[in-house]
Design goal:
alpha/beta, seven-stranded mixed β-sheet, 13% strand, globular
Length: 275
């Protein structure tokens, strides 16, 4: 799908809400899957003029969470392939200083800066206008459904705990709207101050809130950006190709961790790296 088509769908999303309910999650907007387009959201033009904030969210495997927030950025903020900000990564750990050699890495055979051993959880960071925070907070809590369970309960351990990070944490002026979204969540999610390195939160309906200035976000490897989550059909070529498109724009890249090679692996792991 071309960027113009993506933007056109996002711009008319509210009008087409009834129709989208009858379209599959991965095909609803071609690029990004589901986005709850019926909720009241700020006008995209006005939101663009607002100050922005970086927030990270974690709820199990970050592949699924990134896909959901990419869809929300497209539908709510009318963002195209080069302006989408959702990135997979790691946050919430302090073990061993929380950072090794300037990087945090996925599990790897070399044992380099393993995020689990450093106490981190998988998360997705994005940058949104402050006026859109209520909408994105609602989207996050909706991921837990009416039972308060994440999408992939088979994944267990502290690496998959539910986390939310923003500057100032619970002292942030934005925290009240996040707290309200939790109170209104269908799963009855509860917020607790994050202290780092916690065990899994599954079954507790708990979300750990971190001050992202103290518990920063570390981007994940290129391989993990815009990846299918293996819990169902592929998210599609248009979505996967964001990996290559954003790499060429310098928006995502290699982190120094064991990773794919954008040239050597083209056609096997890489997505959207045309020769």
């Amino acid at each position: 799908m071309q960027a113009s088509a993506i933007l056109a769908i996002a711009a008319t999303a509210t009008a087409k809400c009834a129709a989208l309910r009858h379209i599959g999650r991965r095909s609803a907007i071609g690029l990004a899957g589901s986005a709850a387009v019926a909720a009241v959201v700020p006008d995209a033009a006005n939101a663009a003029a607002d100050p922005t904030v970086k927030i990270y969210f974690g709820a199990g495997c970050f592949w699924h969470v990134q896909h959901e927030f990419v869809g929300e950025e497209v539908a709510v903020l009318q963002r195209g392939p080069e302006s989408i900000t959702a990135r997979t990564g790691y946050a919430g750990g302090t073990l061993g200083g929380g950072l090794k050699d300037g990087k945090v890495c996925y599990h790897n055979f070399k044992g380099v800066a393993d995020y689990g051993s450093l106490g981190h959880a998988e998360a997705v960071q994005l940058e949104v206008p402050t006026s859109a925070v209520p909408r994105f907070a609602k989207k996050y809590f909706d991921l837990f459904g009416s039972r308060g369970y994440r999408h992939d309960p088979q994944d267990r351990g502290g690496e998959y705990r539910s986390v939310l990070g923003l500057p100032g944490g619970q002292a942030s002026p934005l925290f009240p709207v996040i707290k309200q979204a939790a109170l209104e969540s269908q799963g009855g999610m509860k917020l607790y101050a994050g202290r780092g390195n916690e065990p899994d939160t599954i079954g507790d309906k708990a979300v750990l809130v971190y001050d992202s200035d103290k518990y920063p976000f570390y981007p994940a490897e290129l391989y993990h950006q815009f990846h299918d989550d293996f819990m169902g059909p592929s998210y599609g070529k248009a979505y996967n190709s964001l990996q290559g498109r954003q790499y060429k724009q310098g928006l995502v890249g290699l982190t120094g961790c064991p990773d794919m090679d954008p040239v050597r692996d083209e056609g096997r792991y890489a997505k959207g790296f045309p020769s």
